[in-house]
């Protein structure tokens, strides 16, 4: 995987080429409003303009200006479509971009630090925070009964320890 450039956010990951015209099959990593026609994205330091976006099952089919054939598209496999953090629209209260949560400390309601969020998984029912700390890897379901508060300024997510959450 290519690293994400400082000051940029990965909004999608290229899974591979789709068809013969240079379309990309991508996994969205941001809300659907981020990856839209006319948006400028960067891949491996090169600028592209989104020409078209279509839902294709769980993934998106994206056409970018300047990528006209399958071979060029295939070379982008496992690279990130990136946008500057400053280009992202604010989300409604209670919603967060994935990049905002990575590295945030997870703390139990009784004050115990569980560790930072190291990854986020998308499950059909809800997202899951992957936390690595004193208990090893802990999977925290991002549901109201468990996640009590998210304070991005303090970089802390407060959770309720429900039965079965910790090993």
Layout: helices, strands, pairs:
Layout: E1 8-18, E2 23-28, E3 40-43, E4 46-56, E5 59-64, H1 70-74, E6 80-84, H2 98-101, E7 105-108, E8 113-122, E9 127-133, E10 136-141, E11 147-151, E12 156-159
Query: What is the count of helical runs?
Result: 2
Oligomer: single chain
What CATH architecture of the largest domain do you see?
Beta Barrel
CATH top-level class of the largest domain: Mainly Beta
**Between the first and last Cα atoms, what is the distance in angstroms?**
31 Å
β-sheet strand percentage: over 45%
H-E string: EEEEEHEHEEEEEE
Structural class: mainly beta
Percent helix, as a range, is: under 10%
* Overall tally of structural domains: 2
CATH topology of the largest domain: Elongation Factor Tu (Ef-tu), domain 3
The CATH homologous superfamily name of the largest domain equals RimM
The parts where pLDDT drops under 50 for at least 5 residues are none
Query: What's the overall average pLDDT, rounded?
Result: 92
- Can you list the strand order of the major beta sheet? 3-4-5-2-1-6
Radius of gyration: 18 Å
